[in-house]
Amino acid sequence: MEKRLKEKINDALSYIKSKCSLTPEIGIILGTGLGKLAEKIEDKTVISYDKIPHFALSTAPGHAGNLLIGKIGDKKVVAMQGRFHLYEGYSPEEVTFPVRVMKAMGVKVLIESNAAGGMNRNFKARDIMIITDHINFTGVNPLIGPNDDTLGPRFPDMSEPYDEQLIELVERIALREGIRCHRGVYIGVTGPNFETRAEYRFFHLIGADAVGMSTVPEVIVAKHSGLRVVGLSCITDMCIPDRLEPVDFKRVIDVASRAEPKLTKLVEKLIREI
Ligand code: HPA
Fold this sequence. Notes:
By secondary structure, this protein is of the alpha/beta class.
């Protein structure tokens, strides 16, 4: 019989604990081309996803596939260098399983990063958007199915998925460091195709500022688990319907890597000041 979610979490947790006894308080998910924050983690234990029970494998380009546990300043952190996406064929439960494991490890705050297409005309490529809210447009939900009340409530509140205090902290750091940052709404889709002009027009019309193929399922599970969440999007390409240029994934990775130093700086300072 398929194991229950709680048992799977415990299997993964036992394996991780056998490799590293640190209890991290901050979890970080490093998105497309943004894995270099890993270099800032000191005294780290690196665990490949393929060793962790019930973890999926990272198949997406720009995603390394390691769980890193260590310290940034005096903060104990666990970071996913590479995440799982619905477009890889993973179920919503598989995509969000690492968030459950992070929570079980002791994490209280989850920092999300991703590469996203910008639909707000005030944005430009390489800007950073602090996610203030999201629209789940994936057509699925990781909480569908029997609810384990010990993991979270059947009907979790979503009135403030992204923690306002942490948003303000990121803004203060960005201002101090001279990093251009916007606030905005992220719409999550499954991909893998980029959107049509009509879809970008629609997404912007319904209130989204940026679009991407990750984050939303993870944040739903993070909120279900009672975590505080902060989300940062790196705008890699502009998606303005009337002057749309073809998006090429290589360029997305390239722009994300060029924006990486400032995102890394922002996240590093945020961790130190949380
Ligand atoms: N859509 C459009 N552009 C993007 C995306 C997306 O999902 N991700 C990164 N750039």
